[in-house]
Amino acid sequence: MEIEGYRIERELSRGPITTVYLARQVELDRLVILKVLNVQWQKEKDLVQRFRREARICARLRHPNIVTLFDFGTAEGSFYLTIEYVEGKDLRELIEAYHPLPFSVIAFITREILKGLTYAHGKGVIHRDLKPANIVISWEGEVKIADFGLATLGDFPSVTEPGGTVGTPAYMSPEQARGGSLDARSDLFNLGATLYELCTGRSPFEGENLARSIQKVLKEDPPYLGTQRPDIPEGYARLVHRLLAKPREKRPQGAGEVLERLKSLYPFPDEEILMRFLKHPEAVLPPPEVPTTTEPRKHKSPNLSWIIAVLAALTLSGGWFILQIFKNRADTEHQNASWVQIDDTLVSSRIFPDTFSVESAAPSPEEGENAALTAEPPAVGDAKVSSETPDASEKPAARSGGIFLTVYPWADVYIDGVYRERTPLKQPLPLSEGEYIVELRNPYYSAYQTRIHIAPGRVDTLKVTLSPALGYLNLQVSPWARIYIDGEYVETTPLQEPIALSAGRHVLRLVNPNFPVWEDTIEVRAGETLFRKVALKN
Hints:
- The structure is a single chain.
- By secondary structure, the protein is an alpha+beta fold.
- The chain folds into 4 domains: 6-84, Phosphorylase Kinase, domain 1, CATH 3.30.200.20; 88-281, Transferase(Phosphotransferase) domain 1 (Transferase(Phosphotransferase), domain 1, Orthogonal Bundle), CATH 1.10.510; 306-361 and 381-467, no CATH class; 470-535, Immunoglobulin-like.
- The chain contains 13 helices and 27 strands.
- It has helices at 45-59, 91-98, 103-122, 174-177, 184-200, 210-219, 225-228, 234-243, 255-265, 273-279, 304-317, 319-336, 365-374; strands at residues 6-14, 18-25, 30-37, 69-75, 78-84, 88-90, 125-126, 135-138, 143-145, 152-153, 339-342, 345-348, 383-387, 400-408, 412-415, 418-422, 429-432, 434-441, 448-454, 459-465, 470-478, 482-485, 488-492, 499-502, 504-511, 518-524, 529-535.
- Strand 8 (135-138) and strand 9 (143-145) form a beta hairpin.
- It starts with 5 loop residues before the first strand and ends with a strand.
């Protein structure tokens, strides 16, 4: 594809409605995002209207926590948006890479999202699709809300017909799931689901299919956040669950109210916490448990048996000998300490003990910075393995190692055919030196299998994006209809994304009380999208 004034660098993603490219704006010599409406939709008035509306809404928003729209135009008969390119990760990728995130980082990200959302709500803009994939994080620690494609504005007409739903099922509010009217409180529910995932690594309403996710949104409350992450402060946990209240009147009235509440709980003195975390994650990791005192202690208090030994030594050999014992013990504890105090921060000392230790997996500051600057999400079905190797000045390698797995969307982990754990993992899996077969299973995705070698004293990271074993159904129904698949209600048109279905034959039924029931058998192929356009008639 060619657009005058831009040079396409590469395709970033392709969906049923739009394709996203990374491009260089030649005149200004800067990288930008080009979001292009696919050619086959150029004559579909509702989609063109939605695309234009996104441009007009984004043009009104100028805020440090919102991705900036640069331009809107046409090329090769299709419409495109030129959007600010943020070099970094989206929040979903950040969660996958670093879960569990330290609370200081969580609180900072929460505040930045709320600042952008407060501004948008002040302009009368409701996002309607807030989720981790639509929040981008720059390597400089900036947090920006992106993708206002489903946003609505008070003085712009909506393109969603009565009875339609908008949003992503695992994050949408109950009123969104019912196809009802939306306001700022609907965005707050989306935000609550996003923050819950930020803390736990998983959406509170994730289901095995779209219908199951919607059922969870409508009828189920997620487990209390404090029980999932005991290190999360009580005030923050209560705030997140307030955002997830099913009746909208029980939620805060707007993002500004939530932001003020958050500020009252946490003063946020460190404005560079996220940037430092991205450069040196190991320096901001949660410290190990320490006794409850005003300051963490570097050394344990001597126990009774040790005191008796000291007294005996004093009796036999005099004061000089006891001083030598104190010095030797202090030196030994200092050398073996797993965490040390540096500028009021507990940081891993990267020792390699004889038994497997999570602390031994932490990369050096130089390794952490290089990994953060070069990390990219893997292609579908591909794996990316990285290793951290201790410096030569450190202790000799241990006799055991391990593997840390990050899997999108999730998987049950089997090692040599034996079930170990379900992702997201809280810590690496310890393994002895040798060869292993790792298998990742998700009933809705193709199984992934690979052979790994565990080296002593080393923890490798395996990143995998599973390939779907599903097909997709994209429907365009005029005027609108409730969709039933194999007799089960799934969604109401117009669809915002294709419906995921298992490969094979299904019975599709469309119901609109003003028209006769429409029914047909469809064949869905794995990894492919089936498109059907139906006009209901009397």
